[in-house]
Amino acid sequence: xxxxxxxxxxxxxxDCETTLEEEKELGQFFNSESVPAKWQSIAPLFxxxxxxxxxxxxxxxxxxQVLAQIEAKQEEPAGGKGKIIRLFYDMAKVAAVAxxxxxxxxxxREEYLNKKDKVDPYIADTFEDPKEAFEETKKxxxxxxxxxNKGRKEVEKVGVFNEAQEKIKETEAL
Amino acid sequence: xxxxxxxxxxxxxxxxxxxxxxRFLKDEDDARDVVQEVLIKVWNKREGMDQLENMEAWCMxxxxxxxxxxxxSKHSKYTDPMKEGFDIxxxxxETPYRTAEMSDMMKNIGSFIEALPEKQRQxxxxxxxxxxxxxxxxDILEIDMNQVKVNLFRARKAVKESLLNIxxxxxx
Lengths: 174, 172
What we know:
Chain B: Residues 109-158 form the RNA polymerase sigma factor 70 region 4 type domain. Chain A has helices at 3-14, 20-31, 43-55, 60-75, 79-117, 130-173.
């Protein structure tokens, strides 16, 4: 190998101006046996790089593991079949939602109809006979009037105070 | 993308992904897990992959993101950067012409590069170890092309100085 050329390449290498091919050339040169003494200190660097390339590698077992995983993956969702299955799942989702809505609707309707059939005692008539109804109403009104009168008696007592107060005010005004 | 294409185009990249993940995580098992996760991710996204201009850089970028996520999720655990995996002197990489002194120096270089700022370390890894172009590195790290160059320049300069120091004083 041309030593001048190596010298040149090395200078370019330190300046980061070498191409990948030139760097490969340098690597080959320094990994060969005949490295001149003046470059003995630089050779280990390129040998180190070479070693790094050789040492850090994965064994064949690794390939097998990865390929086994990939094959396992490949089997489950294989192409067109996967699409059909996915479509089926989507349809199932839609169907499930529809089913829920229909059932809910059914129960709501049931509830509504039940309520409609039942008689509301506050709105519908309770007595058939008008006389009976009259008596019942009278009874109810009497109850109200009785309680009302009871209340008025109490209020009359308060009225006494009121009168007294007004009298005082009158005397004060005089 | 078929499984065959996956095997021929994606799987061979695994070692690069692994080394890159290892740079972040500094744990071999974690890095292995990350690469596995990345490959599964790539497989899941295989439909859009034919439009990608650079699949490898894309994989690297995913690796970076997954690694960073993993780091975030367990940031408390930070292991010593000089753990196993960087012990260059051992293993079958021993070649006849490699002297003990040489491997010592390589170890020093390794720990020096480990100690570089994160960006510089990543850039030098991607460029000098994995051999990516500037454009690819800027894609992978999602930084500006100039940033890539600046970081690489600084990293190489630092490495050069450290090499001279090792040589002059025998210190790392």
